[in-house]
Design a protein that fits this description.
Oligomer: single chain
Number of domains: 3
GO biological process, one term: L-histidine biosynthetic process
Cofactor: Zn(2+)
InterPro entries: Ald_DH/histidinol_DH (IPR016161), Histidinol_DH_monofunct (IPR022695), Hstdl_DH (IPR012131)
Order of helices and strands: EHHHEEEHEHEHEHEEHEHHEHEHEHEHH
GO molecular function: histidinol dehydrogenase activity; metal ion binding; NAD binding
Organism: Hypericibacter terrae
Mean pLDDT: 96
Bound molecules: nicotinamide-adenine-dinucleotide, zinc ion
CATH superfamily of the largest domain: Nitrogenase molybdenum iron protein domain
Length: about 425
């Protein structure tokens, strides 16, 4: 039976419908008024004062010259790790052709999406790492053309390290544009962009909702909204380290949940006390304390099995396990975006560049999808090829199924093949 050392207050459904409504109006406005509406929202929401949204080659060169070498080296390390792992994942996708029966050849092929729009969040923190995660991965997947958008920080330009990261990750065009207006511009091809086939990247509640509503106009990677962390811990874990890791993610934004599921009541209480203590000195406590107050939870359970089932119900984006039984959890857990086994690793490693992708499912989307990877940019398609003998052999079966369904024109397409491929000497 689960017990709560701390439970999050119930969320107001009003807030969600307000986001939905705001985004719906903005998308309709942009679909009909295009560039004018995009520019208007950029001015209103991001204090845009620039002329061209598209960042010029000149600006990119200037930024690259001015950034310190140490940053470029750190960036190169992260990019190497993420793209190496992405390449291994891509190579794990197999094309094949199989002869399932005499003369029936069926095959699977992989074709990258042609044009992709990558969103790099930057409202609260300019996420440098998100450039590698989206653009770098799309490049590894073989995407033909990559448009990237990141919000202008000061109303004029993209945060220089993010701009550098976008260029170095392989973006073909970069625009200083944020939020809903960026998602819509990429989908519809506004302000000089080429309309993309798919939009990708994490973002706040407005960005995630814009993606959801644009689905159909374009394809999506996954629902990657406000960050979440869940930690499963037993009495062997260090309460101070757990508190640090929970707050480490709560700093993302006031809507970022942090949950602890533990088999130890004493540990649960110790973590609660630690969080309050650490919030007193945490530099970003202003945001993290709101997130913890409104979305933080500490759940005590009776067994490791119950910890697994509670965690699977929450289906967290990030899941850290700090228990004596790491292998048990690795084999039993089913719903999560990315798993961090043991206290030696932490979500920040995954966020910034240990190698696994940081764009991950939130809002319980981990029940049905994993995170961003090369495969999200690659279409698995199929083909078939039959000999005349095989075609004649299966034509009557296919024809009868058509007939049962009342699809008579379908049936004729099978019948004509049956006659067409009759043996010549018959
Ligand atoms: N799930 C993941 O994989 C993942 C990874 C990294 C970051 N994140 C999340 O990304 C988010 C980044 O959020 P952010 O806000 O810092 O940056 P953001 O770039 O996602 O959003 C900033 C934009 O929001 C728009 N906006 C702000 N207020 C608005 C309003 N009232 N109406 C309409 N539009 C509005 C503005 O246009 C602005 O450009 C965080 O919530 C973080 O948790 C998720
Ligand atoms: Zn994070």
């Amino acid at each position: 039976m689960r017990r709560y050392v701390k439970k999050a207050p119930p969320k107001a459904p009003r807030d969600l419908s307000r986001v939905e409504e705001t985004v719906r109006k903005m998308l309709a406005d942009i679909a009909s008024n295009r560039d004018e509406a995009v520019a208007r929202y950029a001015r209103e929401l991001d204090r845009w004062q620039g002329k061209e949204f598209r960042v010029s080659e000149d600006e990119i060169r200037k930024v690259a010259t001015n950034l310190p070498e140490s940053f470029k080296e750190d960036f190169a390390f992260c990019k190497q790790q993420v793209t190496d792992f992405a390449r291994r994942q891509r190579d794990s996708m197999q094309e094949f052709e199989v002869e399932t029966q005499d003369g029936i050849r069926l095959g699977q092929k992989h074709i990258p999406v042609e044009a992709v729009g990558c969103y790099i969040p930057g409202g609260k923190y300019p996420l440098v790492s998100a450039a590698i995660m989206s653009v770098g991965t799309a490049r590894v997947a073989g995407v033909g053309y990559i448009t990237a958008c990141a919000p202008p920080r000061d109303g004029v330009a993209i945060f220089p390290p993010t701009l550098y990261a976008l260029h170095a990750s392989g973006a073909d065009e970069i625009y200083a544009l944020g939020g809903v207006q960026a998602m819509a511009a990429m989908a519809h091809g506004c302000v000089g962009m080429r309309p993309v086939d798919m939009i990708t990247g994490p973002g706040n509640a407005f960005v995630a909702e814009a993606k959801r509503q644009l689905f159909g106009v374009v394809g999506l990677d996954l629902m990657a909204g406000p960050t979440e962390i869940l930690i499963i811990a037993d009495d062997s874990a260090d309460p101070a380290l757990i508190a640090t890791d929970l707050l480490g993610q709560a700093e993302h934004g006031p809507d970022s949940p942090a949950w602890l599921v533990t088999t130890s009541d004493a540990l649960g209480k110790a973590v609660l006390a630690e969080i309050e203590k650490q919030l007193e000195t945490l530099p970003t406590a202003e945001v993290a304390s709101l997130a913890w107050r409104d979305h933080g939870e500490i759940v005590v359970v009776d067994s490791d099995e119950e910890a697994v089932s509670v965690s699977d119900e929450y289906a967290p984006e990030h899941l850290e396990v700090m228990t004596k039984r790491l292998d048990f959890y690795l084999s039993k857990l089913r719903n999560y975006g990315s798993l961090f086994l043991g206290e030696e690793c932490t979500v920040a490693y995954g966020d910034k560049g240990v190698g696994t992708n940081h764009t991950l499912p939130t809002g319980r989307a981990a029940r049905y999808t994993g995170g961003l990877w090369a495969g999200k940019f690659i279409k698995t398609v199929t083909y078939q090829h039959l000999t005349p003998e095989a075609s004649r052999r299966i034509a009557p079966i296919m024809g009868r199924v058509c007939h049962v369904e009342g699809m008579l024109a379908h049936e004729i397409t099978a019948d004509v093949r049956y006659r067409r491929y009759a043996p010549k000497n018959a």
